[in-house]
Amino acid sequence: MPYSAHPETVSEPRRQHLYTMDQRNLILWHHYRKKKMCLALFVFIMGLLDKQTPNRRVWIKHWVARRKALGLHHNLFLELQLEDPDKYRRQVIIDLYCTVGVDNRCGFRCLRMNSDMFEALLARVTPLIKKQNTHLRESISAAERLSVTLRHLATGETQESLSLTFRLGQSTISGIVKETSRAIYNVLKGDNLKFPANKDEWRAVALEYEDKWNFAHCIGALDGKHFKIDPPLRSGSLYYNYKEFFSIVLLALVDANMRFIYVDVGTNGRISDTGIWNKCSLKPYLENLNIPPTPLPGSQDLFPYVVVGDEIFQLTDQVLVPYSKDYLRHRLDRKIFNYRLSRARRCVENAFGILVARFQIFRSAMRYDPEDAKYIVLAACALHNWLRSDSVGRAMYTPPTSLDSEDIMAGTVNVGDWHNANAAGVGRFHFQGGNRHAAGPLMLRDMWCEYFNGVGAVPWQERMVTRVR
């Protein structure tokens, strides 16, 4: 029988079946409609959220991805190294002109290092800074990491500027400088920041002072500097010093070759200069060194081994300081003593002066937290010693005109080029009064004064004191 949908022609069982199918289709249609409405609502909400959400970070910015094609290290550095090594030494390894004042430029070189020295340093730090390549990206090479760090330390160029120059992210630049500074310090400190290990090594330091600076029994020149930093977060006035800026302190002992043999870095600037000396580890070490006193050349009297400092330090059996101005009136002998002591102290003054002149990052506040700034200072001290460790590096890093020197015939001091450098980011230690010297050290200083005016005199000392300079 042909099919008919008319109710009168459909049997009762068939009618019930059709009714059930209609109900099911209606239910399915309602479910489909709900799903469609939910999907539309979801798309609408996601569209609203997408408009309100900032642009997501990309995996790597396009201008950074072109680092190998257009970046400084992969192009100009390597090109000059191959085609013009002299230009590479002078211009690329950071021998740049620097601003001394407003639009006032001088030819004062910043950091001299030839390509051989750069490669030697690179070989030492590579195991500590080299990163593994991944399937997704190629790592930044150790050579580029070292180039970025040296340029930052030597020129003081900001992280923002370095980011554009090297085509690296600013946070990447910051991480590279922090890590590589630590690596430089760790690989160089063993043989370039070596503290004398025994009494014989201290005597060797004293012999060099006697040969080069006519000051026997001197085992180092002592001084300190405040290095300006940005205010650390949540530190209050902890690093705020009496000079009215935030700082960490470098206290250093320097040998006759203007190399650092002891450095204490990181003390907060709020502590007074004398307090910094009293809390450092060198003070008790010298008090317990116990090198037996011996006669000075030409004398029968026993003299101890001493370090020389300026008037901010307290006069003790181990630390020799000059007479204050109140004790110099009409006393040529004491002026001669002060001259002989300042002549030996010139080593530490030159060392600090060259350090700040060559590493221009210290010419303004370091934008690092105190711990990272500490390792930047330590890396600079280690590099200073390393660059002065052989004749080639010494000639490039500290040519004769860069250092204070004497013209003993004319009775004058020739001022080194480092005095022309902008040292706005560094503060000197200053005498704040209050030092009371014990009777024993006062008598000992008078013995030194008598020696320098007697058998220990040098022919030109009176000329240097009396001639107007």
Automatic annotation (TrEMBL):
This is Protein ALP1-like. Pfam families: DDE_Tnp_4. InterPro entries: HARBI1-like, HARBI1_dom. Its cofactor is a divalent metal cation. Coiled coil: none annotated. One of its GO terms (molecular function) is metal ion binding. Residues 222-385 form the DDE Tnp4 domain. It comes from the Eukaryota. Belongs to the HARBI1 family. The keyword Hydrolase applies. Transmembrane segments: none annotated. It comes from Frankliniella fusca. Signal peptide: none annotated. GO terms for cellular component: nucleus. Keywords: Hydrolase, Metal-binding, Nuclease, Nucleus. It is found in: Nucleus.
